[in-house]
Design brief:
Distance between the termini: 62 Å
Oligomer: single chain
Strand content: under 5%
Largest sheet: none
Shape: globular
């Protein structure tokens, strides 16, 4: 059985918010296992989770004074971790999903195209984050990071068949999620104005 860690108590959080460095250090240390667990459940890989957890703990350290209610620490940290994982997916999408560099002499994409590309990347990132963690991990490892199927199966401790099945479910769920969001986000191609 894994050990259960408690979130810092309200008295300690209040002291940290009031500038007590020892209390602040304790809050960060006591929050760390929870933040790491959040990150591991949301991010695509252990490396991404480590980066997101580290960034979230830095934000906690710097901005604990902005926390309105001491009892809201867990929810606040979860949102920070989620946003960090989303940011990483957006970075991956913008690096890996971007079109190759334009040949010399060709025009750069317009500002409108750049905004549309960014909005589409954000829509995909949000749909990815909405997937169950097991599906999100397999999809990101295989389709975003481009790892071979056997490497993904090995990384997740799955058989090849189980990995393929999970990947199929993830792709189907993502496709449905994006299709469901599409009519609200974009006008119909055949609509008359």
């Amino acid at each position: 059985m894994t050990p259960r860690f408690a979130w810092p108590d309200e008295r300690l959080i209040r002291a940290a918010q009031n500038g007590d460095v020892t209390s602040l250090t304790s809050v960060v240390v006591q929050s760390q296992p929870h933040v790491r667990r959040f990150a591991l459940s949301l991010c695509a890989s252990p490396q991404d989770a480590e980066d997101a957890a580290q960034e979230a703990l830095i934000i906690l350290y710097r901005k604990i004074g902005t926390l309105r209610a001491t009892g809201a620490l867990a929810g606040w940290m979860f949102r920070i971790v989620r946003n960090e994982c989303l940011r990483q997916v957006r970075l991956l999408a913008s690096r890996g999903g971007a079109a190759p560099a334009a040949p010399e002499g060709s025009a750069e994409p317009s500002a409108e195209e750049a905004v549309l590309h960014r909005l589409e990347a954000e829509r995909i990132a949000a749909a990815l984050c909405a997937l169950p963690p097991d599906q999100r991990r397999v999809l990101i490892l295989r389709d975003v990071q481009g790892l071979p199927g056997r490497a993904v199966a090995h990384a997740l401790g799955l058989s090849n068949a189980a990995m393929k099945s999970r990947l199929h479910r993830a792709r189907t769920a993502l496709r449905h999620s994006l299709a469901a969001a599409e009519p609200a986000d974009a006008p119909s191609a055949g609509a008359d104005s």
